[in-house]
Design a protein that fits this description.
The structure is a single chain. The chain has 600 residues and is of the alpha/beta class. The chain has helices at residues 20-31, 36-54, 61-83, 93-103, 108-121, 130-133, 150-154, 161-170, 193-198, 202-208, 215-234, 238-247, 250-258, 270-283, 290-300, 309-325, 361-376, 379-419, 433-458, 467-470, 472-476, 497-506, 524-535, 557-566, and strands spanning 261-263, 302-306, 345-347, 480-485, 536-547, 568-574, 589-595. Strands 3-2-1-4-5-7-6 form a 7-stranded mixed β-sheet, with helices on both faces. Helix 3 packs parallel to helix 16, helix 11 crosses helix 13 (250-258) and helix 11 (215-234) crosses helix 14 (270-283). It starts with 19 loop residues before the first helix and ends in a 5-residue tail after the last strand.
Length: 600
């Protein structure tokens, strides 16, 4: 051990009171030939599995998964915070607190972590108890990460000392954490995208079409997207738009400040994180700090949705880390609370929901104001803001559902009138099979809308995520300026039959163009491309990573026709993954950049 001095640049942490075997294990980790990131992901997965298995009985599998991740991500985040010196100014604050608790015979979950999370980090200094103040100079972080989660209120989640000790010994204390990317021998926030993959079995990743997107690819595609938007919004030739984006001219800075960006399948936040960096850099004022610029972009520009709650959790974590990375505060008391991301990164299914938006300007303005209030609120004000947002969302949902019922009734009435028609000779004409099917479809939609309205009136939770409800202000304004991301690539045979039928009814480009068998059935990415175009405002830009097969497969003929005739194509190009970057999908990727404007 004397041959390898311990320092902040060394991945080998201090070996306080460690026995010889522990020292050898840590030394082996430090000099192992296996890449640091790979070891971290493997260890994280092992500890995560141990947490999931060690939780008290009761919660179903999905809740156990979420609860285990909740505990681990809190502590993981604190190791990054500790690296900035914000935990009482000590680089070993957490290790010493754990050692002290074990020596005193305390229960780590109850006596250390709960008071630290819920009595200290989520409360302003003046509102802390005497016991909380004994932790020392700890910042008030807020941000939702250190508030009791509804699952924690529903289930008992305390883990034993043995489980926590293994987590600290086998994971957190074996690695060196930094908030700045590019540090050798350290775990930086940019590595966390791989954590999401490490928590999913290969089969689950294959079924859900979930694949990690390399950061260089994210940066390139986002740059092409903002150039395409500048072409449309500023009326520039592409070369001039690219020059102005690179030069950060005032018109581009204004565009970056005012645009709305969506990743409809956000995953663990790769595109949201890249967009945060790009937009903050393009729009940052001379007198604005990097941290303040990122907070502003989170508040005004970014929106994300993903079906997987684990992905949403990790996306939030990475965005919070991006905010603190550039915070130059050296006094924990001066650290600004983290924004609440509950209202901008949502769990839900982007492919569901109708296209029409609520037109009530006053209602949508109230929802936007409520969402902004949630982002910056703390304590009791946060609870009031969430209640106000919830009320606004319910009002928007009720308006949208009532409009859906009216549309269905009008369509049913028109179809029934057509069905009661007579021939030239006055004979009754029986309705065609297609007309009968149309009436049945509209009746099903009316029944579903009425059922959702009844649930809403009873005060039940909103049935599901819907852009018309949760991002009603953006949709009422015409849609998003940018829709970006790497949506799931799932072959037809991997999709449930009911979902295939639902998508074929909802999306024109998803319908089979001819032929039988799965070979002629669309990939799920086809529906995401069409949905992305729907969610764009006129002149907005779409930038997606999609399977290259969409350029030639028979099942994508409707998509190609729709894009060629109804959109302006800026990039349709095969992607060559940069050296050293992995792209794990087994299908060749393609970059698709298009704007919602008919071509010349």
């Amino acid at each position: 051990a004397e041959l390898m001095p311990v320092s902040r640049a060394n991945p080998l942490p201090a070996l306080r009171d460690a026995d010889a075997l522990d020292a050898l294990a840590r030394l082996a980790d430090a000099v192992a030939m296996e890449p640091l990131g790979t070891r971290f992901f493997r260890q994280f997965r092992r500890v995560f599995t141990r947490f999931t298995e060690a939780l008290p009985p009761g919660p179903p599998a999905a809740d156990r998964h979420a609860l285990a991740l909740l505990q681990l991500t809190r502590v993981l985040f604190l190791y990054f915070v500790q690296s900035k010196g914000w935990l009482d100014g000590r680089a070993d604050f957490l290790a010493r607190a754990v050692d002290d608790g074990l020596q005193r015979g305390r229960r780590l979950h109850r006596d250390l972590l709960r008071p630290l999370f819920f009595g200290t980090l989520n409360r302003p200094v003046h509102a802390r108890s005497a016991a909380a103040r004994r932790f020392g100079a700890i910042p008030f972080l807020n941000g939702g990460l250190f508030a009791p989660h509804p699952l924690e209120q529903q289930w008992r989640t305390d883990l034993s000392n043995a489980v926590w000790r293994h987590a600290f010994d086998d994971l957190f204390e074996r690695f060196h954490f930094v908030t700045r990317e590019g540090s050798d021998g350290a775990i930086a926030p940019d590595m966390l995208g791989r954590v999401f993959e490490s928590l999913m079995e290969p089969e689950a990743r294959h079924r859900s079409g979930t694949f990690y997107t390399p950061a260089p690819l994210v940066a390139r595609l986002l740059n092409d997207a903002i150039v395409a938007l500048a072409v449309e919004r500023l009326g520039l030739p592409e070369a001039e738009a690219a020059r102005r984006v690179e030069a950060r001219t005032p018109d581009v800075a204004h565009l970056a400040r005012t645009l709305t960006l969506l990743d409809p399948a956000a995953g663990s936040g790769a595109f949201l994180l890249g967009a945060l960096e790009l937009l903050a850099g393009l729009s940052r004022a001379d007198d604005e700090s990097a941290s303040a610029a990122r907070r502003r972009v989170l508040r005004d520009n970014l929106h994300g949705v993903d079906l997987n709650p684990t992905a949403v959790r990790l996306a939030e974590l990475r965005l919070w880390l991006a905010v603190i990375a550039d915070d130059q505060s050296d006094d924990p008391a001066r650290v600004a609370p983290l924004p609440n991301l509950d209202a901008v990164v949502r769990q839900g299914d982007s492919l569901r929901g109708a296209q029409a938006a609520v037109a009530d300007a006053a209602l949508t303005a109230r929802l936007r104001q409520a969402r902004h209030a949630v982002l910056d609120a703390t304590g009791a004000a946060k609870r009031r803001s969430l209640a106000t947002l919830r009320t606004a969302e319910q009002s928007v949902a009720r308006t949208a559902l009532e409009a859906e019922v009216d549309r269905a009734e009008q369509a049913i009435g028109a179809a029934l009138a057509a069905a009661r028609g007579t021939s030239l000779f006055g004979d009754r004409v029986p309705p065609s099979r297609a007309l009968a099917a149309e009436i049945a479809r509209w009746r099903t939609r009316r029944r579903a809308a009425r059922a959702a309205l009844r649930r809403l009136v009873r005060g039940d939770e909103l049935a599901s995520f819907d852009y018309r409800t949760h991002f009603a202000d953006v949709m009422a304004g015409g849609g998003f300026d940018l829709v970006v991301g790497n949506p799931p690539w799932v072959r037809a045979e991997e999709l449930p039959r009911t979902l295939r039928h639902e998508l074929a009814e909802r999306y024109r480009w998803f319908r089979t163009a001819g032929g039988r068998g799965y070979r002629n059935a669309p990939d799920l990415s086809v529906a995401f491309v069409e949905r992305g175009m729907e969610l764009l405002s006129p002149g907005g830009a779409l930038a997606l990573v999609v399977p290259a097969k969409l350029a030639m497969a028979g099942y994508a003929a409707a998509l190609r026709h729709g894009l060629a005739s109804g959109a302006t194509l800026h990039r349709v190009a095969a992607i060559e993954t940069p050296a050293g970057a992995r792209f794990d999908a087994t299908v060749y990727p393609m970059a698709l950049v298009a704007s919602r404007r008919r071509p010349a």
